[in-house]
Amino acid sequence: MTTWLNMSLQDGASPIMEQLIFFHDHTLMIMLMIITTVMYMMTTLLWNKHTSRFMLEGQLIETTWTIAPAIILVFIGMPSLRLLYLMDEIHNPTMTLKAVGHQWYWSYEYSDFTKLEFDSYMIPQEENQTSTFRLLDTDNGIVLPMNSPIRLVVTAADVLHSWTIPSLGVKTDATPGRLNQTSFSINHPGILYGQCSEICGANHSFMPITIESVSANHFINWVSSLS
Questions:
Q1: What are 107-116's pLDDT values in tens digits?
Q2: Residue limits of the Cytochrome oxidase subunit II transmembrane region profile domain (predicted)?
Q3: Does 184 lie in the same domain as 80?
Q4: For residues 2 and 10, is the Cβ–Cβ distance under 8 A?
Q5: What pTM did the predictor assign?
Q6: Based on the structure, what is the number of domains in the chain?
Q7: 5 lies in a domain?
């Protein structure tokens, strides 16, 4: 989750998010190179008086600053397209989780199990304890096994919502009458937090999402305890 004065992205909890962070850093380095070059050229033009008839036309420099941006765009576009295809691919999921957005809470259904569904509400502020996070903790959190491909099916019952977990690199719109799906795999155990990222009404910021990532054995024991 985010912390005080955190100016960068959250630590990646999935392979896709780690790749997104690498792509973010890769693009920033290219931007830094471009900004440095432009600032150097602007400073040179301000502090030097170039008066030469040979500088009125230069075919080589014009060719260079036409080809160079095209090459830079290729270096940015190829990793971006690769990531887009990876994020859209469903990799033989081991289980399916269905999330339904309501005003203003989430309902979850484990489609691979019988009658395993529940509603998830934000913990009211007056019931917060020292161990809970304000506006982020829920009364019923999602429990998922780590290192397992999980398919997420998202829809809404009333208005537009958006199921978002920043540390997983997952953001899927919940549209009434429509099923959107995505997939992810959690790298390590822990608790992950997210919120609805769509302006869905007056209490839209009070629709938190809590995921507890556990081992496969712990997940099986949790499912058995609810049966």
A1: 999 988 888 8
A2: 1-91
A3: no
A4: yes
A5: 0.83
A6: 2
A7: no
